[in-house]
Structure to design on (123 residues):
């Protein structure tokens, strides 16, 4: 049996695997690429409109929330396709609710973006 790593070595290895996961998500998943692009546009808008520190914090949290849940949704889709590649109503239900979770985050992020930028654009 493989010997267990020490606490510190274990955490460093986990962080390395997590960074590899970030790289895989960004380079292979179209949904993550799309969300990253929207996040990048939000960051550019943030610099353009010189938003406050509080607005930056809310915007960064919103971007992080969407990317995190989109990443988990991708993982759910991959597991579903792996364990049951054929059409199946239960797999469809699982994928739908995982996508629904992303939609909650995306709507919240949209609301944050609207509250930050609409007054700056129209007022
Ligand atoms: N094996 C399946 N059985 C039943 N329904 C499925 C199955 N695979 C996909 N679906 C249905 O199709 C929808 C889209 O699934 P899919 O895996 O293509 O996700 P997607 O959001 O298009 O993913 P991607 O991130 O690859 O663009 C699901 O939400 C579900 O309703």
């Amino acid at each position: 049996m493989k010997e267990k790593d020490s606490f510190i070595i274990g955490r460093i290895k986990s962080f390395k695997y997590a960074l590899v996961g970030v790289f895989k998500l960004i380079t292979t998943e179209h949904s993550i690429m799309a969300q990253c692009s929207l996040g990048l546009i939000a960051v550019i808008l943030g610099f353009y409109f010189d938003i406050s520190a509080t607005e930056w914090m809310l915007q960064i949290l919103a971007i992080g929330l969407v990317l995190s849940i989109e990443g988990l949704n991708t993982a759910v889709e991959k597991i579903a396709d792996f364990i049951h590649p054929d059409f199946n109503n239960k797999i469809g239900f699982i994928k739908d609710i995982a996508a629904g979770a992303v939609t909650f985050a995306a709507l919240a992020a949209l609301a944050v973006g609207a509250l930050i930028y609409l007054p700056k654009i129209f007022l």
